[in-house]
Amino acid sequence: MSISSCLIMIFSRWLALPHWGGMGEATILLLVLFPIKAVAQDTPVWEQYYEQMTSVDDAESESWANVYEVLNDLATNKININRATKEELEQLPFLSDKQIQDLLEYVYRHHRMQSLGEISLIESISWNERRLLSCFLEAGPSEEKKQEPFWKRLKYGKSELTTLFTIPFYSRKGDGNAYLGDRYRHWLRYNFSIGQDFKAGIVATKDAGEPFFKGRNRLGYDYYSYYVLMRNMGRVKTLALGRYRVRMGLGLVMNSDYGFGKLMTLNNLNRTATNIRAHSSRSSGNYLQGAAATIALNKNIDLTSFISYRDIDATLNKDSSSISTIVTTGYHRTKTEMDKKNNTSQFASGLNVNYTKNGFHIGSSAVYTSLSREMKPKTQVYQRWNPEGKHFWNASVDYGYTSGKWSLCGETAVDNDGRLAEILSGCLRVGYGLSLVALQRYYSYRYNALFAESFAEASGVKNEKGIYLGAEWQAMRNLHIQTYIDVSKHDWPRYGSHLPNQNCLDYFMQATYQKRSWHSSLRYRLRHRQYDNEKKEAFEYRDEHRARLQIGQDHNRLSWRLQGDVAYSHQTEGSFGWMASGNVGYTSQRFNMSVSGGYFHTKDYNSRVYASEKGLLYSFYFPNFSGEGIRYTAQARVKLAKSLLFVAHLTTTNYFDRSKISSSYAEINRSSKTDLDLQVQYKF
User: Fold this and answer.
1) Residue 417: CB partners within 8 Å, gap ≥ 6?
2) Which of 100, 139, 300, 484 is most exposed, with minimal Cβ within 10 Å?
3) Which has the higher per-residue pLDDT, 83 or 679?
4) Digit-coded pLDDT (tens) for 630-644
5) pTM of structure
6) E strands of 133-247, at which residues?
C-alpha cells in the first residue's frame, strides 16, 4: 500500500469520530488533490529566526506582520552586498549599526566579497547572524551597470502576482444578517521591481463579511494600496509616491513603519535610522499617502521630508462633529463599521535633517498633523490625557555614536503642549560573543504624538518610565543565549485600571542550540504586574509564567519539530494551561507539504497558549488558544511551472469544552472551525 493510501485511510478514520464536525470533506479533497509522495516544507532559516524572536506581545501586535512582509520581500529580492548602501542594509532588522558599518567597511577595504563566506571574517557578526544574512544577501558583481534610460531598464524588471481566496466551512451569526457582504476573504497583490532600485505595485483586499462590488465598495475591494518606491537616483537616495511608511530617529515623533518587541531590542534599538518604505501591506491603518523623499545634501547630511493627505476611520462622539478615537482595525463588515470608514481627513507633513560622520550622528525631526474633525476623548479615567484638538505638532533631537566596542543613542521629543518623551540606550560588546544593552525611557502621561511608536511595555509612547537591561551571548558556536529584565512604572491609570502608579516587572530568558541538522530552544518568561483588586481600591499583583521547549531536525528533505508550551497565571486564584504540538514534513523539488497538530488544555483565557504556524505567502500566523481542544493544519505547495506556484492551506480547531465559538456577530454555532486557503503566485 502506498504512503498516500495509508495516510488517506488514517485521516478517514479520524474523520469518522463525532467531534471532528463537518470538515472531513475538505481534508479528503486536499489529500486527493495532492498525492503525498513528498510531504511538508523546509522552513527557511529566517522564518525560524522570526519565530524565535516573536513573543506573546509581538504576536498580538500588527507591527510584526509588517516585519514578516519586509523580510519575505528581501528574501525574494536579495541585496547585492558588493553594491549595498547603508540604507539598504538598514532594512534588515537584526543588524546593529556597528554590524552594518563593519559590512560596508569590509567591502570598501577589499573592493568586493567573492562569496558570503567572507562574512565569517567580520568579528561583530555571529554565526547565527551569518546564517541569516545568507537568506537576504548575495555576492554579485561590484561594478555598476552602465546607466541606461529608465524605459530600457524595464527589461531587467520582475513581476509577481499573488492571490488568495479563503473558504470557511462554517457560518457566523452575522452572515446574511448584520454583515454587509459574503463570508469569503480574498486579496491580490501585484509587485514590479528592478532589484532594490525600483518597486511599484498595488494591493487589494476584502475581509470576510465586507461587501464586494456593492454598497460603499462599488469599486470592488474594501481596501486598495498603491505605491512607487525608487532608490539610488544620484542625490535622491529614496523617493516614495502613493502609500508609504516613514520612521524617524527612535520613533518618539514619527514611526508609521514597524517596531520591535523587547527581545529584538537586544539587536536593533541602537539604530536611529530614518527609513522610507513602500506600504505594500494589507493593513489599512498607520500608513501615509502622498510623497516622501530622502536627499543627500552632501556626503554627511541627509534631508528627509514627507507630505501626506488621506482619509481615516474614526469613532464619532454623539455630536457627530468630533472624534473619540481613531480606528485602525480596517474592518467594514457591519453598518456601524462602515459608517466609520473614511469619515475624517488627516493631513501630515514632516522633516528630518541628519548629520553623520566617523560613527557619530545627530538629527532633528519635526512633524505636523491636522484633522478635519476635532478630537475629544471620552471621559474614562485612562483616556483623560488622550490627544485633544485638531492640530498637533511634535519635534525631537536624536543622537548617537558607534565605536568598535560600544555604542550609544537616544532621542528627546516634545509635543505642542511642551510635554516630554525621551529614550536613551547603550550597548557594550564585552568580547567572547557577549553584548550588554541598557535602556532608559521616560514618556510623560500627557505626551501625545499620533505617529509615535518606540520601545514600551504598553502600547504607544505615553505614560511610562522604566529601565531595561539585556544580554546576548554566543556562548559556543552552536549555543546562543538571550536574556533581559525590564522594570516599568505608569504614573496615570492605564486601560483596565482605575489607580495610578502601576508597576510591572518583565523577565525573559531564551537559549537556542543548533548543531548540524538538529535545533532546539528553551524559553521562559515571567511578568509581575499590578492590577486593580475587586473593589478597585488597591493594587494586587498578577504573576504570569510562560515556558516553551522546542526540538526539531531538518535532515535532507525530511523535517520535524516537537514543541511544548505551558502557562500559569495567578492573581486571586491560579490558572494553568498547556499545549503539546508537532510538525512533520518532506520536501521535493516541485512539491512539498507539511502537517501539524496540537492538543491544548487551559483553565481560562489568562492561561492561553500560543502556537506559531507556517502561514501562506506574505503572512505569518500566531493564533492563541484557551479551553480544551485540538488544532491541526495541512499545507501543500505545488510548483506547477517554473514561474507558477499553487498553495493550499487547511486549518481546523476542534473544541471539546464548548458548543459555540466566539461571540456577537462572529459567533459560530458549532464546536469546530475549519478554513481552506487557496493561493496562487505567478512570477514573470
Assistant:
1) 446, 448
2) 300
3) 679
4) 999 999 999 998 899
5) 0.85
6) 137-138, 158-168, 185-194, 198-206, 223-233, 236-247
